[in-house]
Amino acid sequence: MNCRKGSFVNRAMAFLFLLLGTHACMAATTCRFVTGGGVTFGPYNTLSASPVDTTLNLSISCTRNGGPQKVSVMVSLGLGGNGTSVNARRMLGASGDYLAYGLFRDVSRSSTWGFTPGVDTVSQTLSIPNNGSASVTFDVFGRIPALQDVSAGSYGDRVQVTLTP
User: Fold this and answer.
1) Phi, psi angles (nearest 5°) of residue 74
2) Exposure string over 48-68, b if 16+ CB within 10 A, otherwise e
3) CB neighbours of residue 3 within 10 Å
4) What is the CATH number of the domain that holds 63?
């Protein structure tokens, strides 16, 4: 059924069509973040030969009212406010120094997480019962590489997280 307004000869028929068409157009899957927030790395030692690793769990809940039962949920991560690409994310410190870090799709931290669908995003398929809900968790693996010569202090960045049901 086409949900666009059309030309109708009879206003009563148009109203009935829109009224009946409303149900089909209202069919929707809605997803939202339940948990997530910021990635916290903890202390960084500029003299340590070991990277600093962390993991963030993004919990997502989806509800469905009509439409297909199987829904693909995709999460993408932007490059951050200080990065030059998803492969070159940086946190800014009060001193003006940048501390490089990465966000990855795998525990080995070899696959960068980005925002290009089908290339560096992560998708999972959910089976959501009609008028029900289902949940999924995405793990984001973070790493600050070792031996960066930066000033002591707090560092931060903001990364846009996009959820697409």
Assistant:
1) -120, 140
2) eeebbeeebebebbbbbeeee
3) 12
4) 2.60.40.1090
Distance CA 66, CA 28 (A): 6
- Structural domain count, the chain: 1
Least-confidence region, from 11-20, 76-85, 152-161: 11-20
Asked whether residue 43 is domain-assigned, the answer is yes
Per the domain annotation, does 110 fall within a domain? Answer: yes
Q: pLDDT band at residue 27, thresholds of 50, 70 and 90?
A: low
Q: Identify whether the C-beta of residue 73 lies closer than 8 Å to the C-beta of residue 64.
A: no
Domain extent at residue 46? 28-164
Compute how many other C-beta atoms are within 10 angstroms of the C-beta atom of residue 133: 14
Half-sphere exposure of 28 toward its Cβ, with a 13 Å CA cutoff? 7
Place of tokens 């492969």: 87
Residue 35 in domain: yes
Are 129 and 69 spatial neighbours (Cβ–Cβ below 8 Å)? yes
Tokens representing 63 are 């509800």
13, part of any domain: no
Lowest mean pLDDT among 6-10, 26-30, 38-42, 122-126: 6-10
Q: Please tell me the predicted confidence (pLDDT) of residue 26.
A: 58
> For residue 126, is pLDDT > 80?
yes
